[in-house]
Amino acid sequence: MKERAIQLTINGTAMNLTVPVHQTLLDTLREQLGFTDTKYGCGTGECGACTVIVDDKDSLCSCMALAATMNGRSITTSAGLAFDGLNAVQQAFIDQTAVQCGYCTPGMVVKSTSLLRKNPNPTEEEIRKELEGNICRCTGYDSIVKAVQQAAKSFPETDAKWDNAVEVKAGVNA
């Protein structure tokens, strides 16, 4: 089996890994590294349960990316958003009861965080459009949209605190 040595920064911690060239980022996160907050849903990029943030800006379905192609990249899972307490999106999901069975929640939180980093004041239509690729079978989405709207009210300050913490943490581990 062909393998490749890669370096990833996951939730602010730099890691050197050897991965099979055919292994997905999702399998690397879950099976090799134990980041089970990133969920396996469909395996085809349709449900969004495995969503992560790449390089602190864009979201990506980790089941659709080969880990070997992520060399040098920074990956943030839902657990990585909870530096020094819950971030605004995570807290809003709790406040708005946007968590039912919880299976889609990590992907929804990550995708919502990515949205708010790009657009800190999205309309309801923009929120719904951004979350189209994330499937929830329990909530009906209304509480999820309300959670994102709530988070938008305090997100820039909260996320800036988190971004600064990641920079400090990454510097220590470099």
From TrEMBL:
Keyword Glycoprotein found: no
Swiss-Prot/TrEMBL keywords: 2Fe-2S, Iron, Iron-sulfur, Metal-binding, Oxidoreductase
GO terms of molecular function: 2 iron, 2 sulfur cluster binding; metal ion binding; oxidoreductase activity
Annotated ranges, domain 2Fe-2S ferredoxin-type: 4-81
Coiled-coil ranges from the UniProt annotation: none
Keyword Zinc: no
Domain of life: Bacteria
UniProt protein name: (2Fe-2S)-binding protein
Organism: Pontibacterium sinense
